[in-house]
Automatic annotation (TrEMBL):
Gene coding for it: putP
InterPro entries membership: Na/Glc_symporter_sf (IPR038377), Na/Pro_symporter (IPR011851), Na/solute_symporter (IPR001734), Na/solute_symporter_CS (IPR018212), Sodium:Solute_Symporter (IPR050277)
Protein's name according to its UniProt entry: Sodium/proline symporter
Organism: Qipengyuania oceanensis
GO cellular component: plasma membrane
Lineage of the organism: Bacteria, Pseudomonadati, Pseudomonadota, Alphaproteobacteria, Sphingomonadales
Family: Belongs to the sodium:solute symporter (SSF) (TC 2.A.21) family.
Length: 492
């Protein structure tokens, strides 16, 4: 069985690397080409690239696993994310595409913030770059955990003479392929591979739930009703849902405004006029994918119960069913879909981290007159360095994908979300307010996690750290900007 699956995966890896070589020949001569594909992405590529880099292994591992374990109540996260994605495309996308080009042709989010608030340019570039690199290293590690779990679950002992665990082997293979096309082809390679990976993901998320429900051993309606009878409230959106739990779930959508690896796609769209088309494509893709992931979690639990299947780690339900229900070649395609979800996000995060290290540290402090070729090569080195740091973090096989993703998502959402929205929409925002919001959001999230209040808050279920972080950052920007704006007017 493993031979056919490995053949399909090998073909997938070759395709990804081939796209990287194509992109290398097309758009890696300049920093703008390497980091933003020359701001020339078509609506379809930009939309699916944003979606695929957004969803990561969470879509095929974390979300189905949560629904498998706890029932439909976990779908509130998906609902909140979809609402947040709509707002992100409507509020942020067109404004960011226009303003980043008008304000000095900024290539990174820190550079845009520096151009928007020149009086605090250095502080904003340095602090935001530090936040990006630190949180993305953790976020990348979450993706590598997914790759490790795939190989550990599906290919145990595949290379018996290799002196490392199947889990670590999976991490190194996943990281190696991503590095190959990201370092070589830059943003265009990442975007094109994201497009292909997004197509693979949506096909898998439509195919899998249908086969689980209606294929051999499925008996959709009866199996799902049997689970509901055994576990009352399994199909309820409100069973066991507390107010804090509801708020924590739906506020995941706030994180969209501050995810650099997603909003950088808006900067690269061909034109502002193309944003509406990209939005429609992206939201349709997301709706189908999320519904498929929810269906997989519910149907997977029903299938397991009906057939006496024991799934020790709920986050591996996609992997387990792929091996049980499909021909090895199709299983390879499904595993490729999982790797696509993982790799599309990792590559985007590595490139954004690399861009910040190159533009906001190297060219700002070390080599202000660095040539375009030198900057591109430094970017490639930075991609490798961030990847190695993420591999170190991902070494623990007990890591939960959803947990790592939630921490990083909250960190970005609180630190950059209010900052990006207000910088694009509020003329009276000041550089001092921007710095205050950036620091406040990141610090509040870190403290909330450190104190354990995301798990246990005032004696009950914890409150997701993005909520206090986002509110605190918004207030900090508003209050400090009002104070410093008045001061600036008074002394003008």
């Amino acid at each position: 069985m493993q031979t056919g699956t490995l053949v399909t995966l090998a073909l997938y890896f070759i395709l990804m690397i081939g796209i990287g070589l194509f992109a290398w020949r097309k758009s890696t001569d300049t920093s703008e080409g390497y980091m933003l594909a020359g701001r020339n992405l078509s609506p379809g590529v930009a939309a699916l690239s944003a979606g695929a880099s957004d969803m990561s292994g969470w879509l095929l591992l974390g979300l189905p696993g949560a629904l498998y374990a706890s029932g439909l109540v976990e779908a509130w996260i998906a609902i909140g994310l979809f609402a947040g994605a709509i707002a992100n495309w409507v509020i942020v996308a067109p404004r960011l595409r226009q303003q980043t080009e008008e304000l000095g042709n900024a290539l990174t989010i820190p550079e845009f913030l520096a151009n928007r608030f020149p009086d605090k340019a250095v502080a904003l570039r340095v602090i935001s770059a530090i936040v990006i690199v630190l949180f993305f290293t953790v976020y990348t590690a979450a993706g590598l955990v997914g790759g490790g779990k795939l190989f550990e679950t599906a290919f145990a002992g595949i290379l018996p003479n290799v002196a490392m665990s199947d889990y670590m082997l999976g991490i190194w293979i996943t990281a190696g392929v991503v590095l190959a096309y990201t370092m070589v082809g830059g943003f265009l390679a990442v975007s094109l591979t994201d497009f292909v990976q997004g197509c693979i993901m949506v096909v898998a998320l439509v195919l899998m739930p249908l086969v689980v429900m209606f294929g051999e051993g499925g008996s959709a309606g009866g199996s799902i009703l049997a689970v509901a009878a055994e576990q009352p409230g399994f199909l309820s959106l409100t069973e066991g849902l507390t107010f804090l739990g509801f708020v924590s779930a739906v506020t995941w959508g706030l994180g969209y405004f501050g995810q650099p690896h997603i909003i950088v796609r808006f900067m690269a769209i061909r034109s502002v006029a193309d944003v509406a088309t990209a939005r429609n494509i992206g939201l349709t893709w997301m709706a189908v994918s999320v519904i498929g992931a929810v269906g997989l979690g519910i149907a997977g639990r029903a299938y397991a119960m009906r057939n006496g299947l024991v799934v020790e780690d709920p986050e591996t339900i996609f992997i387990v069913l792929s091996e049980l229900l499909f021909h090895p070649l199709i299983t390879g395609f499904l595993f490729a879909a999982l790797l696509a979800a993982i790799m599309s996000t990792i590559s985007s995060q590595l490139l954004v981290s690399s861009s910040s290290l190159t533009e906001d540290f190297y060219r700002l402090f070390l080599r202000q007159n660095a040539s375009e070729r030198e900057a591109v090569n430094v970017g490639r080195v930075c991609v490798a360095l961030v990847a190695l740091a993420a591999i170190v973090i991902a070494q623990d096989p007990e890591s939960e994908v959803l947990g790592l993703v939630s921490n990083a998502w909250a960190g970005f959402g609180a630190a950059f979300g209010p900052l990006i929205v207000l910088s694009l929409t509020w003329d009276r925002m000041t550089g001092t307010g921007a710095v205050a919001g950036l620091v406040t959001g990141a610090v509040v999230v870190a403290l909330w996690i450190a104190l354990g209040w995301n798990a246990d808050f005032v004696g009950g279920r914890g409150l997701y750290e993005i909520v206090p972080g986002f509110i605190a950052a918004w207030l900090a920007i508003w209050l400090v900007s009002k104070a410093t704006y008045r001061h600036k007017v008074a002394t003008a």
